[in-house]
Amino acid sequence: MPVKLYNTETKTKSEFVPIDPEHVTMYVCGPTVYNYCHIGNFRPPVVFDVLARVLRAKYPKVTYARNITDIDDKINAAAEQQGVDISVISEKFTKAYHDDLAVLGVLPTDVEPKVTDHVAEIHQEIQSLIDRGHAYEAQGHVLFSVSSYPEYGQLSKRDPDELLAGARVDVAAYKKSPGDFVLWKPSEDDQPGWDSPWGRGRPGWHIECTAMAAKHLGDTIDIHGGGNDLVFPHHENERAQSTCSHGAKFVNYWLHNGLINMNQEKMSKSIGNVLLLKDLANEIPGEVMRFILLSAHYRAPLDWNDDVVQQAKSSLDRLYGALRKLAGISLPEDIGIQIPQAFDDAMSDDLNTPMAFAELFALAKKANTATSDEQRVKCKAGLLQAGQWLGLLQQDPEEWFAGGSTDDQATVIESLIVQRSDAKADKNWARADEIRAELTGMNVVLEDGPDGTTWRIEK
């Protein structure tokens, strides 16, 4: 089925038609690396990781870029406080970000540009805007003139006359209009800075992505993604800069994911209800977190609470339980594509993951009731292939149910299960109950069935 995507700019869902059918381009805004990231920061990388997987299954080539912002006043402040170079801060938290992505099973992007590596390109973009009459110099700053671009506000559907500055500075007297935003700003002697035609300084936030997207993907790209909170001002300003600098449409499909709430309250550092992923990972398996992030449609808000965590764990237990029963089924190398058409249709329909999960559970049910090896082979291949699109179900089922326990722990558990089985065979019910209680104390859940006893760790 052709891929359909909802475009924030047009407010419509339509068939995705790439500029080049042989090569799809996608750019997603990445983190500003000054601190550890919370779970809300990871909905975009998980969502667009899934989109990249789907596109790779349908197109010959996909180039997916997600940037690292390593020039920022928050990074500067952290570096000054610790008495280190900004690179020490940015490299530390870039690594932390990569570690968190690995926990969530997010694949590396094709390109991961850093702002510090693209200062020359940023200068070129700014000069192009000045030359074309869309930017001006004022007191060491270079600013984009919003009035020079009549289409400003069309992405966010805001009236330009009502918009305030979108840059990370207060409205200042040197602006011709309050809505004009900074492309380049001066640095004090004790601040990080780069030489430029407009004096020593550093780039504004928005121009960075314009320069990096153009260098690695071209003047016009197929897809640009990010969270709803970036529609204005960041993406609105990107759209204006890029269009005016290159004289060409910047993005054909703008995609934005909904934000995460914590117990129905907006997750915010100012409120203090953020959940750092590195802390969550001590309590919740990464695959469970990924499942939660995909459980609602990507454009809808997502509420994070204890109930959804347990529901996600139980849902994955069901799916891995089906795969566990198929452990003895080998897949031929020429198995081909076994993804159910209904699953493909759901994922191709603007990443309708709730419907895709429903089809996955239907396939698991079919696997549990299959009466022939031919059916079991198709079901196993379908579960694994569909899971690959979602970035799920790629663990060995026994590893999943072991819950990260060590080999020594697993040996102890298996030994106790054998002892319990022997006690039951001897009708020593008291001893069998004692062993079950001991295993329960170890957070081991037993499931007795006609084929014996299976177990899993319940976190």
Global Rg: 26 Å
Please tell me the overall pLDDT.
92
Assign the CATH superfamily of the largest domain: HUPs
Please give the largest β-sheet.
4 strands, parallel
Instruction: Give the proportion of residues in helices.
Output: 40-55%
End-to-end distance: 39 Å
Number of helices: 15
Work out the number of β strands.
15
CATH architecture heading of the largest domain? 3-Layer(aba) Sandwich
Strand content: 15-25%
Shape: elongated
CATH class of the largest domain: Alpha Beta
The neighbouring-strand order within the major sheet is: 4-3-9-10
Structural class: alpha/beta
CATH topology annotation of the largest domain: Rossmann fold
Q: What's the layout of helices and strands?
A:
Blueprint: E1 4-7, E2 12-15, E3 24-28, H1 43-58, E4 62-66, H2 73-82, H3 86-103, H4 119-131, E5 135-138, E6 141-144, E7 181-186, E8 201-203, H5 205-217, E9 221-227, H6 231-246, E10 251-257, E11 260-262, E12 265-266, H7 277-280, H8 286-295, E13 302-304, H9 306-325, H10 341-348, H11 353-369, H12 373-390, H13 397-402, H14 407-425, H15 429-441, E14 444-449, E15 452-457
Parallel strand pairs: 3-4, 3-9, 9-10, 11-13
Antiparallel strand pairs: 1-2, 5-6, 6-7, 7-8, 11-12, 14-15
Question: Could you walk me through the main structural features you see in this protein, from its secondary elements to its overall organization?
Answer:
This protein has helices at residues 43-58, 73-82, 86-103, 119-131, 205-217, 231-246, 277-280, 286-295, 306-325, 341-348, 353-369, 373-390, 397-402, 407-425, 429-441; strands at 4-7, 12-15, 24-28, 62-66, 135-138, 141-144, 181-186, 201-203, 221-227, 251-257, 260-262, 265-266, 302-304, 444-449, 452-457. The chain is an alpha/beta fold. A four-stranded parallel sheet has the order 4-3-9-10. Strands 5-6-7-8 form a four-stranded antiparallel sheet. Strand 11 and strand 12 form a beta hairpin. The longest helix has 20 residues, at 306-325. The chain is elongated and about 90 Å long.
